[in-house]
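Recall the central idea of this unit: under ordinary conditions, the amino acid sequence of a chain determines the structure it adopts. In this exercise we apply that idea directly, starting from the sequence alone.
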Amino acid sequence: MRELTDLIEVEDPAWPELQALFAASPSPLTVFAPDPGESTRGLRQLQVTARSMLGGLTLNCGGLLVDDGWVRVFGGGSGRDGSLPSLARVNGFPEAFDPAWQAGAGLVLAHDVLGGVFALNGVDPAGAGRPGQPGQMIYFAPDTLQWEALEIGHSAWLAWLLSERLEEFYSALRWEGWREEAAAAGPAQGISVFPFLWSKEAKDVSTTSRRTVPMAGILGIAADFAQQIGAGDPGFLGLV
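Accordingly, the structure predicted from this sequence is:
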């Protein structure tokens, strides 16, 4: 176990590089200040240093709203009462450091407004029924209810998320006025789409009916339907 000072007081911390990445992003971006208690709780349980992108984000940043809230990246948490939850809270970290605790299949790092989930694979993705290699990013797609391997690590994923390539990734799932609807949803909310995105009737998302609801409900319905349609149990999708 490394003490908190060993995790924080490092040479070449990642935070300046992260700040440069934020400044260069073509997407509208909100960067929250961290909750001191939650950020250090997360860093201690992760046992990664502030030299890494994950550690730097958790320690120095409360989280990110990318593209006016279309994607919410979790970090040190921006406070309670409806603010962006912390990485520690979303992943159910113990309140006090527990060296025996593990994140199971991996870490949930971000949600998108439609209930898509970005996660970092743990040590045995295949054993958890997930694609990709250990330490790589995967995505739970709300239109297929299946995990997809992104074949990149955390740092490359963050650079991709803050680039113009994000628009192409979501092109089939956006509609006229999506930005305004995403911005109107709170950090613990998402946009529920009907007919469901995984149905044939939702092939053209612009013809669907949409409303803002709690994100927990969107994730719960997706997990239930994934098993009903034979996509399999997606496992842990995060606590919000």
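The longest strand covers residues 106-112.
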